[in-house]
Design brief:
18% of the residues lie in helices and 28% in strands. With 359 residues, the chain is α+β, with helices and mostly antiparallel strands. The strands form four sheets. Strands 1, 2, 3, 4, 5, 7, 8, 11, 12 and 13 form a ten-stranded mixed beta sheet that branches. A hairpin with a 5-residue loop joins strand 12 and strand 13.
Amino acid sequence: MKSFRQHMTENRGFSLVELMVALTIGLIILSAVSMLFVGSKKTYTAQDSLARLQENARFAMQFLTKDLRLAGYYGCISDIAPDSVYSTLNNSTDFAYNAQVPLEGLNHGTGTWYPSASTTLPSGIVSGTDAITIRVADAGSSIFLTNEMSNKTDGLTVNSVSDISSGDIIMVSDCASTDIMNVTGFSGLQILHAPGSGNPSNSTQTLSKVYSPSTGPGGTRVMKFWTRRYFIGTGASGNPALFRQDNNGTAVELVDGIENMRIQYGEYTASPSDANRSNWVPSVYRNASAVSDWTKVVSVRIGILARTLSDSATGRAKETDIDTGNYDIDGDGNVDLSNPGDHFKRRIFQYVVQLRNAL
């Protein structure tokens, strides 16, 4: 009996005070763990959002810089002028096909393009954002003229037509000149360019000259031609995004979360001017409307403002985590966006592109 009573005394349980102390300690530990978990989740979410922001900005810059380096590439011709660039198109001076102007800029989403003064603005462009147009031939084309044309109206006999379709706008280019036309059909390996109706269509079948295979740099090439516009619009998610439009086609959303784009053009203004263009460096950076001579633009400075895709601030952060920053997007010393007053995170990315081709 004594042994039994001793055993019962040793296992009689916890007192109320002991139980309350244990619960309090447990709650403190649980609260600390919960706060650590919530803090870790917030940190992860913020870092993930910023990582996506940086990734989107890099993709946007890659699209822009790749095409800008090729602006004015029309084969191996060294000068873009009325006596070297011809077009058989019925709307050769329309914005989408004006090969005489290889680079154009638009300020703040309104007004006109410079230097052409065209008022053909991208549909859905966000007000207060710049846009840029690049005209270029397909530098990756492997299509070459194989036979000399019998006359100026003859088709173009080439090594392959696999990458070209009827309705494509193409240019045939040697190192002296280039002709732009609409493909109307094929006869074996011969590209036809007959006149017809439509927009665009060829107003004439007669080219500027008889083209023949060339042994010069790159030979006589046949390449697709694009007028490519980059601008900021509203994406499918409702966020601002970078868009691209080729010729008169439908604009395509490229990168989400690109809120603004501002562009400055590096113009060579030294006097007297150096005759050797390879020595030219930008004397001053100006926006599109302030450029005095587009043939002396030698570089482009792109600034983009990227933001996170969602406003994830909650609770107390809604009151304190507010973006009150000032953003000089293009690096000209002027504030382009001030005190947005929301909870998105923003970063500026800038890049200078040297233009490789004469404008």
